[in-house]
Amino acid sequence: MPAQKRYKTRYPGVYYIEGKAISTGKPERIYYIMYRKDGKQIHEKAGRQFQDDMSPARAAKLRALKIEGDQLSNKEKREAEEARKRAAENKWTVSKLWDAYLSNQPNLKGITTDKNRFENYIEPHFGEREPRDILPLDIDRLRLKLLKKKAPATVRNILELLRRIINFGVKKQLSSGLSFIIEMPTVNNEKTENLTSEQLVSLLNVLESYEDIQACNMMRLVLFTGMRRGEMFRLKWDHINFHDGFILLVDPKGGKDEKIPLTDSAREVLSSHPRAESEYVFPGRGGRQRVCINKQVNEIKQLARLPKDFRALHGLRHTYASILASSGKVDLYTLQKLMTHKSPQMTQRYAHLRDESLQKAANVAGDVVNEALKDKKKNVVDLKK
To answer: What are phi and psi of 101, to 5 degrees?
Structure first.
């Protein structure tokens, strides 16, 4: 194919060829420049007449900038862009670490919640940044922003996920870590929720008439066993041993499978519970594992007129523990095992209830002695008469 004819301009080192406009197909001049750099003759495109609004004068100005080294040649630009892309590929940003973190732990518990936390709160602020580029001020700004709308526990979980991702990168030698310790919001985890006798009766009355048997029996089961919501969502029929009287908690919060007693009340609930064509006791859509029941249990809570800040399922777990502790018949070690707490510190929040029960029990002895003393004094008075 013969070379296209070059047309000189009045500017040294600037010429053009005749072409066609890309958008209209009309005749258009395409300008080129020639110059020498590092002993090499360079010919490169300056731009199109219409598309780039290029003219001989502008091409000449561009040529001067490149000769003086104030602007890279087209080849140098391409090389710089390729180098930038290679650097980006080797750059372990928080988003890239998150992808690696997920692929390394495909069966991670709570993955849906973590994904929401990452996509909504971490990625917009730190997704394109490397951990080494994150400053304490950046974390402070995010924490303060979140605390305006989110509970301290939620903010703590978000920052903890960020820390987990960065620590994963350090452990796998993919990136450096933070040069500082993330300051976490103070969270009061000592809150215990309990129901009065009147509130408990009101709840049980609502459960007798509420139409959703799945929600009703879930609330009954947590009240009779202290099971967590996720444990009930994962509960399958073959996890229940009616013969030996226990329930197997598979993959509970503590990580290791646990067994808890199948109480008489829990046995009654599960024995009468309708079985769907699913392996799960409380199945979700299509017989798959359930992921939510908030709407139903919150409606039950409202019908029973329970306190607004009472958490429908988790609050019943606290109620179960409080009933056992305040009975005076269950020691804290046994309560820890029944609640499947990982440490005794988690059970310690119920210690005051057991102390109150022990105090009442101890007072019984005093009452007996005092009554005996009263009777003795009465007898002495009678004898004097």
So the answer is: -60, -45
